[in-house]
Please model this.
Amino acid sequence: MSKTTQTESKKTTAPKRAELGPTMSGSEILVACLEREGVDTIFAYPGGASMEIHQSLTRSKKIRTVLPRHEHGGAFAAEGYARATGRAGVCMATRRPGATNLVTGIADAFMDSVPLIAVTGQVPQHMIGKGGFQETDIYGMTLPIVKHSYLITDINDIPRVVKEAFYIAQTGRPGPVLIDLPKNVQQAKTQPVFPKEIKLRGSDFSIRPTTSP
Model:
C-alpha cells in the first residue's frame, strides 16, 4: 500500500473530534444536546423534578415546548410526531405519577417500533432507593418495554447518553429509550464535551448475514 493510500485511509477512519462547550447546568446541557440532535418539538408536562429542564427550554430558540393536558397524551403526541416525521419524538414528565403516566405510550411505541425518547425527572441522587417524596423507580418499571434505559448519575455523561439514546431509538428496529435525570444532576454545573459520533458495541447494522451457496 502506498503512502498516499495509507494517508487517505487514515483520513477516512479518523473519528470526528468532540466539541467543548461553555460551563452549563445539567438541564442546560440536556437541552443543548436535544438541539444538536435536531429536536424542534418536545411534548412536556411540568413538575417539581423536571422544572429545571423546563426553565432551560424557555431559553431555547430551536425547540418548541408543547404542553399536553396529561403526560399520557404527551407520550402519544410524541409518537404521532415520530410517525409523521420519521424522526424520534420526544416527551418529558416529572417523577412518580408524572413518569408512570408515560408508561402506556412508551409500551405502545415499543410494540409498534416507533422511535421515542422519554425524559423523566427524578429525586436527587442521594435519595434514590430511600423512599423519597414522590420517588418512583421508572427505570425499573420500563425495562421490559424500552430498547434501553439510562439513569444519569454523572453530569458529564449527559452528552454521551443523549447521543446514544437517539442512535438506539432510530437505528435497527426503532423503539423507545428512557432517560431518567435526578434533580441534583440537573442543577450541577460543568463544562460539557459534546461527542460528534458514537460507537456502540454490537450496533453496526450495516452488517448482513450471508447465506451459503
Summary: DSSP finds nine helices and ten strands in the chain. The chain has one domain: 2-6+22-190.
